[in-house]
């Protein structure tokens, strides 16, 4: 995995991707193929540009908004279980089958199976354990290429893994142990995949921003000026709106619904302020990191 040196603290707290890019002219339509690599021949740059027509910053933002739902529901599902620390303990499984933690094995082995089913033939998807993944056994789909080819080398899942297990989990999983370790690991995987998809969506967002204002981006790219790129791609008002919206969604999705009029609206399945912080402190900064990394390779 190409891991980009990155400190989570190097970004000021400001905070949704790409399984479904929405066209502005019609109701949201999932068009995952827009990101995906072609087969058997790579299209020319010109072909890539013309094929990307219809993908706009607005349509990408609609997809990011839809992905907020996926992320919040995945957190709600994980919050059904307490911390369940044996899931993360390398010495919990006393057999040579698992030389690592349960969650590590569940993620790695699920990724191997999903790789065979073609998951990683789609450039929206990034494995957490990319080494020695088996090849896809399904017939290739002729996805349209939008991204500049060096994008394929960007994978910041190691940062996402560390953020999730070292910082985020303890903020929304209650302390305790109910023995449901396999289900806990499966829930972690769903959260990790949703977060990874969203954060790596930054590649597409960066591509569209570059196409819309290449004359602004090119000097900063040539100068390898990360700070200038970060400034160009940042929209503080959008970030503020994202943080407020995800907190509101966490309140709506996470409330107890009853048939009486005594809904306990003050108790939520995940704390809305944690969701807002997840976006402000980690998801959006990491999405911006992906954008910077993408732009730095955009003229290669
Ligand atoms: O909407 C954009 O312009 C994005 O680049 C996405 C995003 C985000 O991650 O939500 C990231 C950076 C911007 O400052 C605003 C929002």
TrEMBL record:
Of the GO CC terms on this record, one is: cytoplasm
Q: Does the keyword Transcription apply?
A: no
Q: What class of enzyme is it?
A: isomerase
Instruction: Tell me the route in metabolism or biology where this protein functions.
Output: Metabolic intermediate biosynthesis; prephenate biosynthesis; prephenate from chorismate: step 1/1
Q: Which InterPro entries match?
A: Chorismate_II_sf (IPR036263), Chorismate_mutase_AroQ_euk (IPR008238), CM_AroQ_sf_eucaryotic (IPR037039), CM_II_prokaryot (IPR002701)
| NCBIfam families referenced in this protein's UniProt entry, alphabetically | CM_pl-yst (TIGR01802)
- Protein name as catalogued: Chorismate mutase
